[in-house]
Amino acid sequence: MAETGNLTSVIIVIGAGQAGLAAGRELRLAGHEVLLLEARSRLGETWRHRWDSLRLFTPARFSALPGLPFPAAPGHYPDKDEVAAYLEVYAAHFGLPIRLGSPVTRLRRTADGLFEVQVGRVDDRFTASGVLVATGPFQRPHVPDLALPETITGLHSSAYRGPAQLPDGPVLVAGAGNSGVQIAAELAATRTVTLAAGGRQAVAPQRVMGADIFTWLSLSGLVRAPVSGAVGRWMRKRDPLIGMGPRHLRRRGVRVTGRVVSVDGRFVRTADGQRLAPAVVIWATGYRSDYSWLQVAGALSDGLPVHEEGVSPIPGLVYAGLPFQRSRGSALLGWVGEDVARVVGRLVDRPGGRS
Asked: Which of 207, 227, 284, 312 could form a disulfide with 157 if both were Cys (CB 3.0 to 4.6 A apart)?
């Protein structure tokens, strides 16, 4: 596609996941032309490519974007494919203009204060008055710089689908966040499993007094508590695992050790002195941000966005869907729309530095 020309009346949304779709709807309600650029060839692919048994921690009543209820019973916990399908339905329901297969490779500011968004090739770019970045937290899978021997199969949790894809033998899951704990629990039904945990972490039950934990977090206001305040800072520091933790896994026969620190021949060593010989290592070690394409002076610090509750110091540039962008709910389906409404209001007030 050749250069689009000067689309200064358009606000571009980078990313068409849950935050991007909510932003597209909000911008159109505010009377703006909008274009969503999505790197993948189909909406919801980030969800579809996660492990097969994945379900949300939030029930359907807390899993809807603004304006369209999640199509399931309120207490149902949606699986990954249901979420992916819902995102496609949401985009179609609101007629959002989305350009699929369009990874953004550069965002820069022009001399007249507008934004130039480059997609893929050098000659494929858009110019706009405002940009909302909604690329989400799952950008670049992180694997420790430890070379495994040929006798051990290694993969990141983003590539894990289910037990059947793994070779026979004991499994080491490195990382005790929610993903690592869930994967270890699934594998423990048929495998010898070790979980390498970095340290103790609080665990919140999925249900309290017959109600889902997010019902209580919502009613108490904790899920919306701004991270700029004492309660929000406490929530961020103490963000718990949901449903189960290493202690629950021990009851299922999972061996829990310290974090992985080195590889010695065919053995993996842990911080508490354990020497393990797994057939498979699953790195549930999270993701790293990649904003190398964001080439706007003053927009980043140490490679991460500079912002206050999603609003950049650069006029016309805002963010949505960052973890704890404003609160515990900032990156969750049921609450991301509240953050989006705030940043869109600021963006509409001053796109490209103009009122």
From this structure: 284
